[in-house]
Amino acid sequence: MMVTVIGRGHGGTRAMSHTLSESGVFMGAPLNDSGDLLPPEAMYEACRVMARHVRHVKGLTWDFSALHDMPIDPEWTGLVSSYLTSVLESDAQHKGWKLPETTLMYPWIVRLFPDIKYIYWIRDPRDSIIGRHKTDDLADFGVTYDCVDDERERRAISWKYQAELYRSTPPPRNLIEVRFEDFVFDQERTLASLETFLGIPLARIAVRPESVGRWQADQEPHDFPCFQEELKMYGYVN
């Protein structure tokens, strides 16, 4: 079994990576404290290669259609394979990886690995954008967008881009969506669903309830119009 965790940085994906590692899944080597496979530079460059084929239409609209049918750039495949060397060469029965930037390449990752397990990790975007992340400025990864001066707004745009990229991609054969908040407040039920999906027993890790709803005490902008559709879709607002 091979698995990857998809989701924007500061989406709580480290909880899933740690859970998988403690459950005997080889998540590559070496890993940082967030459970990311290192070094990430090849994946960063791979993001830039794929981004060449995304067309910015206007505002918060991008055309991802070319990604689903065009031949995958061999340069991209080489970079991803280089990054995943420790995983791909491992003879572990269960293995995988987690790196938030994988989400920026989701359409081609699905095409390269159509049969692996995908865990799409969701978190209230109002919490997700409170902290800084490498993907805050999409331009760093070759993505064209209407750049803004406000840091929080850039994070919101990055969140929206990744959500739209995910939704534009034909679902792979093996995909499960998991809310971070459910993992924190209803871990047993959430892990039961994941165990059925993955076909292996999972370890229980400590969770921090205070990590949910941090936006309610935040004094800076954290709620943007571009979030509204997903907030309703995933049950964060009525």
Would you spell out the secondary-structure blueprint of this structure?
Layout: E1 2-6, H1 13-22, H2 41-51, E2 55-58, E3 61-63, H3 74-83, H4 85-88, E4 95-98, H5 106-112, E5 117-122, H6 125-128, H7 151-168, E6 175-179, H8 180-185, H9 187-198, H10 228-233
Parallel strand pairs: 1-4, 1-5, 5-6
Antiparallel strand pairs: 2-3
Description:
It is a single chain. The protein has 10 helices and 6 strands; from the N terminus they run βααββααβαβααβααα. It has helices at residues 13-22, 41-51, 74-83, 85-88, 106-112, 125-128, 151-168, 180-185, 187-198, 228-233, and strands at 2-6, 55-58, 61-63, 95-98, 117-122, 175-179. β2 and β3 (61-63) form a beta hairpin. Strands 4-1-5-6 form a 4-stranded parallel sheet. Strands 2-3 form a two-stranded antiparallel sheet. α2 (41-51) runs antiparallel to α3. The protein has a single domain, classed as 3-Layer(aba) Sandwich (Rossmann fold). The longest helix is centred in the last third of the chain and has 18 residues, at 151-168. It is of the alpha/beta class. It starts with a strand and ends in a 5-residue tail after the last helix. The mean pLDDT is 96.
